[in-house]
Every structure is written in structure tokens, then in C-alpha cells.
């Protein structure tokens, strides 16, 4: 059976396998990523409205000897409160997750993952070919995939203990005025560093859904 290779419209490896972690130790996490073997830092995508706090760093894994971008196999983006992991396969995801757990332990709080590529109809002849089958994923397909992933993770976030609010659930913290202010600021920060925006420059999730879900609007 032929190998299936997913690519973006620009021809770069398409990272359809994703995971999201939450944390409250930016300096430790970002500094640790800079020291992990096999990873190198690159400039993250920035767009209008992105955080000005400086708490945004990106690291990539791949073969440095190949053409730029063509050999990337995984990418990690660290923001003030989250870590986004993108990989080219489920096997790679498992490997990187284990290395993150070994490096950061309980400082990282796993929130969810997506491992299914965009749906495609592939013929038996294509699957039987000797050469790898290349599937190009459009920007629209990527946004749809991203939106489904973030909506699932973030709507569950409201009722899960969060290190960003002292280990309480955001919904519980919302019972006080100071807590409401804290949660509102946290969601604003998440929106500025939307995973889709950091991935492609286009916001993938409507954060007013999350604000309504926790009772902010």
C-alpha cells in the first residue's frame, strides 16, 4: 500500500496531528524547549492583535540538511498559558508527547488532541502505486479541522482545573468579580494567540462562544 503524504497548498508538510497543553510556567517551558535535543527555534507567525508580552516562542523538529521547510516533522508553539504541538503522524505525536512529559512533567496539563486527517476519497489504484501518494490540504479544510479541534478542547476547558487560575475550574472562578476579570483576561490572551492565527495567520475559533459558555456574555 502506498504511503500518503499530506501537504499544504504551498507544498510544505501538513501537520494534521495536533495536541494542546495548558501551563503557567512560560519561562520554564520555553527555556526547556530551547534545550531539548533535536529542536531548533524559529520565528512564529505574528499578526495584528497578537500579544505584545513577548511570551510567544516556536520550535521545530526535522532534518536540518534538507531544503527549508520540506523536512519538518513537528512544531511546538509556546504562549503565555498554552503549548501547541503539531506533527506529521500519530507515531510522531506519541514520541514527542513522551519527550515533553519527560522534560516538563506535571508543568504541562494535557487538554486534547486531533489525529484524523481531512477526509479524502482515494482510489485503490492510487493506494497501490509504488510512489507515495501526495494529498494537498486546502486552507479552508485546515480552518475547518482547526475549528472543530479548538471548539472541543475549549468548551471542555471551562469545567477542567486550570493552572492559569490557580488549579480551579474557570467556571468556578467566575463566581467572584475578581475571578470574572481573571477569566475574561485569560480568554482575551487565548484569542490573541489563537492556534489558527499562529499556524496560518487566520483565526480558527470564535472566542465569543467560549465567553458565552462560561457566562461572560
Fill in the keyword field for this structure.
alpha+beta; globular; six-stranded antiparallel beta sheet; 217 residues; two-stranded parallel sheet; 8 strands
How is this structure best summarized?
With 217 residues, the chain is an alpha+beta fold.
Radius of gyration: 18 Å
Total domain units: 1
Strand order of the largest sheet: 3-4-5-6-2-7
- Bin the helical content: 25-40%
Distance between the termini: 51 Å
Tally of DSSP helical segments: 8
Beta-strand portion reads: 15-25%
Given the C-alpha coordinates, what overall shape results?
globular
Number of strands: 8
Order of helices and strands: EEHEEEEHEHEHHHHH
Biggest sheet, open or closed, and with what strands and sense? 6 strands, antiparallel
Structural category? alpha+beta
Q: Quick check: average pLDDT?
A: 88
Poorly predicted tracts of residues: 65-69
Amino acid at each position: 500500500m502506498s504511503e500518503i503524504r499530506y501537504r499544504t497548498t504551498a507544498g510544505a508538510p501538513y501537520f494534521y496531528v495536533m495536541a494542546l497543553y495548558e501551563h503557567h510556567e512560560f519561562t520554564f517551558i520555553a527555556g526547556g524547549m530551547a534545550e531539548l535535543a533535536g529542536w531548533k527555534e524559529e520565528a512564529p507567525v505574528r499578526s495584528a492583535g497578537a500579544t505584545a508580552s513577548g511570551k510567544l516562542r516556536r520550535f521545530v523538529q526535522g532534518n536540518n540538511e534538507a531544503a527549508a521547510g520540506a523536512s519538518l516533522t513537528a512544531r511546538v508553539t509556546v504562549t503565555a498559558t498554552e503549548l501547541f504541538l503539531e506533527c506529521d503522524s500519530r507515531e510522531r505525536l506519541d514520541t514527542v508527547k513522551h519527550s515533553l512529559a519527560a522534560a516538563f512533567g506535571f508543568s504541562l496539563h494535557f487538554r486534547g488532541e486531533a489525529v484524523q486527517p481531512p477526509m479524502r476519497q482515494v482510489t485503490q489504484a492510487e493506494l497501490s502505486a509504488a510512489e507515495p501518494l501526495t494529498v494537498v490540504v486546502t486552507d479552508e479544510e485546515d480552518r475547518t479541522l482547526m475549528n472543530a479541534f479548538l471548539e472541543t478542547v475549549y468548551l471542555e476547558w471551562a469545567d477542567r482545573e486550570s493552572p492559569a487560575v490557580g488549579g480551579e475550574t474557570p467556571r468556578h472562578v467566575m463566581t467572584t468579580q475578581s475571578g470574572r476579570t481573571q477569566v475574561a483576561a485569560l480568554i482575551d490572551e487565548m484569542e490573541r494567540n489563537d492556534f489558527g492565527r499562529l499556524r496560518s495567520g487566520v483565526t480558527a475559533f470564535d472566542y465569543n462562544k467560549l465567553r458565552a459558555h462560561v457566562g461572560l456574555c
